[in-house]
Amino acid sequence: MSPLVSADAPLAALPGLSNEALTLLFAGVAAVVLLWGFERYRTTFSRAELAIALGVALGLLTVAFAPGLYGTLAGVLNLESRFILIQIFANVTFLVLIFYLVSQVNTSQRTIGDLTRSLAVQQADPDADLDEQTLYVVVPAYNEADTIGTVLAALPDRIHDHLVRAVVVSDGSDDATRRAAEEYDAIVVEHPINQGQGGALQTGFDIASDHGADIVVTMDADGQHPVDQLDDLVAPIVDDEADYVLGSRYRGEDNSGNSITRRGGIRTFTWLINRLAKTDITDCTNGFRAIRGSRLAELTLTEERFSAPELIIESRKNGLRIVEVPVTIHEREAGETKKPKIGYAVGLARTIFVTWIR
After folding, report:
1. What's the start-to-end Cα distance of the chain, in Å?
2. Minimal CA–CA distance to 156: which of 135, 131, 180?
3. What is the pLDDT of residues 185-208, one digit of tens each?
4. How many angstroms separate the CA atoms of 230 and 137, rounded?
5. pLDDT by residue (tens digit) across 70-119?
6. What is the pLDDT of residues 135-184, one digit of tens each?
7. Radius of gyration over alpha carbons of the chain, in Å?
8. What are phi and psi of 317, to 5 degrees?
9. Distance between CA atoms of residues 193 and 226, nearest Å
10. How far is Cα 101 from Cα 123, in angstroms, rounded to an integer?
11. Cβ–Cβ contacts within 10 Å for residue 34, how many?
């Protein structure tokens, strides 16, 4: 073993530290890190960033001026050299910094998402006090200017003696989706930043809950969900037989034109949800659903992109009575699907397991 890396070597024997320039480099980097940490604390009062800066600077200064401390600790840990120990410390520090960065990014994204949805909810003018039962149809829409009008025009005024109100959430659309929806008798709000279908549904649910909706229906803006089957979809809730009703293309008709791969994926994830959540459903990704309005507040909804499994599992965990009814799913009337082609299966799997274990 080289005496330059021996745990028993003199304090200055760590490779390079006998070089004055390298020692000054470590000290200079430590000073820069310290200055950064104090500046962040002075301007943002971030104790976490100050603590990170102090820890990194202390490590650099120790390597520069007292490497023997690492030699002693390396001997205690039965490592061949202090250099290996320093590498371990450096890698651990790097991983901690990465985890901290990821945590900060996620926190910022959640804050932006909450603010975006809150601003959108405030755009909805409150309905006048209604002495009758209401059914709110939440329609998330992202660049659906060509189809949203057809969907809204087809909605009936009443379903099972419930007054029907449409809520369109234009999810950061860069086309005329909002203008097209505003031509109809609907509550129309806009997300300034795209939040995904799950985020748009959360906004719609908040609006419906604030307005005291008795039943909340969700349907797509692309014309795939048949309005004439709304009666069948909400009937189990009206008859007090269910709290969550899911439309199933596999109990009805699937004219969506999905590929064999996608159909196989839907059945696989449906099987997984049935095993984990003890449900008995056939179509886990269908967005044509009805929920009892008074039960919405019990659901913890955080998923922005892959919300369908989260809604099912959360409903099951909170004791909502879940039933399926046969529905027909058509092909899109216009445009292209917004579902990601890469990572869709991974996103669904992640949502299923995260929702199940929390």
Report:
1. 51
2. 135
3. 899 999 999 999 999 999 999 999
4. 10
5. 777 777 777 777 777 778 888 888 888 888 888 888 888 888 888 888 88
6. 999 999 999 999 999 999 999 999 999 999 999 999 999 999 999 999 99
7. 29
8. -65, -30
9. 29
10. 33
11. 18
Encoding tokens for residue 44?
A: 């943002």
Q: Name the one residue in this structure whose structure tokens are 């070089």.
A: 19
The angle formed by the CA atoms of residues 120, 319 and 266, to the nearest 5 degrees, is 70
Tell the burial category of 176 from Cβ atoms under 10 Å away from its Cβ (0-12, 13-18, 19+). middle
Position 242 pLDDT exceeds 60: yes
Q: What are phi and psi of 109, to 5 degrees?
A: -65, -40
Of 325, 319, 281, 284, the C-alpha closest to 299 is 319
Dig out the tokens for 90 from the structure: 């450096």
Q: What is the dihedral of CA 201, 206, 235, 262, to 10 degrees?
A: 10
Which pair of tokens denotes residue 136? 């709110």
Contacts of 64 (CB under 8 A, 6+ apart): 17, 23, 26, 27, 30
Q: How many Cβ atoms from other residues are within 10 Å of residue 118's Cβ?
A: 11
* pTM, two decimal places: 0.75
Tell me if residue 41 falls in helix, strand or coil.
Answer: helix
pLDDT of residue 273 exceeding 70: yes
Instruction: List, in order, residues 6 or more apart from 235 with CB less than 8 Å away.
Output: 160, 325
